[in-house]
Amino acid sequence: MQEFPVDNFLGAAVRLLEYIEYQDSNYSREERIENLCYAYEKAAHHFAQERQQTLLKADPKRLQASLQTIVGMVVYSWTKVSKELMADLSIHYTYTLVLDDSRDDPHPQMLTYFDDLQSGREQKHPWWILVNEHFPNVLRHFGPFCSLNLIRSTLDFFEGCWIEQYNFPGYHGSFDYPGFLRRINGLGHCVGASLWPKDQFDEQVLFREITSAVAQMENWMVWVNDLLSFYKEYDDPRDQTSLVKNYVTTYGITLGEALEKLIEDTLLSSKQMMAVFADKDPQLKETITRFMHGYVTWHLCDNRYRLKEIYLRAKTMDTEDARAFTRFREQAAKVGAVEASEWVKFTVVDAVEAQKAAKKHKCLSGGKVAPQCLFSRFALSWWQNGLVLCGIVLLLTSMHLPLPLLFGTSASRGHWHDISNNISNTLSSLRITANP
């Protein structure tokens, strides 16, 4: 494989930052950490739920990394929305990143997709089950037009991930294929529409502006992502159908020429983004500018994109672009390089284990629930249960404990914990495990 074209990359990154007049002043450090904490905590608890864990079946470490990455993206870029919307979007976009990293074939579980949709039945694909359940939490923040964009773009994204399962870069001469695939799996319309919550923007009054923003964001967001993730994807075997590499196959050009095409498109889109909204609604323009700056800060600082490696390399180079990139990255790090330990106080795995412990404790010491929980530990037939119950009642009454206390709500947690353990030990010693 060719050596990474660091000079071309640095030049493109610097032009991008200059064109968007990059200077991220979206938050104070305290505000950034506060928003990160809120969005992360709610999203982590969501993914720690038993249903999510059962259906998603994501690798815990990968899920944790995906969640932290997405919370950073949302908080850094959606700077003016409520904390609640930040959290709900963090959950939604984490689902998309989990799907993007998945290698499961969706075909068998999509055979009845439309029939189930039309009939109001639960989908077969576990990802759709969970995304559909969470969607109302996201859509409640938006008007109908923006909501439709979010739904449609999410559906497109699923299809794009499906296509990528085949690692198909397109046929030679199919010049439309790379753009087609990147548009449907880029979530550009979903992102572009989710910038306009109804508590801040009237989508009917600003319909033309919002429509234009969605259109412009479709390409700007995905091309900036492709440019700034080019380094991390350069030698990653899981990213062999990136936009740049698909250009190589379909256009029959070199990797360097494909990168130049992406650079030209990204810079042109950045110029258009700045020019189109320069004289539009001030609040709308500010939202777009803050998003662009925050989105770039996130890429420059998030470990997923490994741009700190490029920064360290640039510091050793004596070129104008290297020096400019170094300054920009240090500027971004000053506001955006927040250690995870400052806002990740527990992992999803921690939350899962805590819920299991709480459930077990409730089972052992939950008043009227206790007898039921005791029997659930053993595979007994109905007559064995009856005999055991009689034995338990005799045992407990011999301890001079009144029956209302034994089976009523007044039993203390300590009583039930001790009683539960004694009974469990007794049953275990008798080896009562048969279930004829």
Task: Describe this entry's structure for a reader.
The protein is mostly helical. The protein has two domains: 6-347, Farnesyl Diphosphate Synthase; 366-430. 69% of the residues lie in helices and 0% in strands. It is built from 22 helices and no strands. It has helices at residues 6-19, 29-48, 50-56, 60-77, 83-100, 113-119, 126-139, 144-164, 177-184, 188-193, 207-228, 230-233, 243-251, 255-276, 282-301, 307-314, 320-336, 348-365, 369-376, 382-398, 403-407, 413-430. It is globular. The N and C termini lie far apart (65 Å). 36% of the residues are buried. Mean pLDDT is 87; it is low at 368-372, 374-379, 401-420 and 426-436.
Write the layout of secondary structure elements.
Elements: H1 6-19, H2 29-48, H3 50-56, H4 60-77, H5 83-100, H6 113-119, H7 126-139, H8 144-164, H9 177-184, H10 188-193, H11 207-228, H12 230-233, H13 243-251, H14 255-276, H15 282-301, H16 307-314, H17 320-336, H18 348-365, H19 369-376, H20 382-398, H21 403-407, H22 413-430
Helix pairs in contact: 1-14, 1-17, 2-4, 2-5, 2-18, 4-5, 4-15, 5-7, 9-13, 11-14, 11-15, 13-14, 15-17, 16-17, 18-19
Descriptive terms for the model:
0% strand; 2 domains; Farnesyl Diphosphate Synthase; mainly alpha; 436 residues
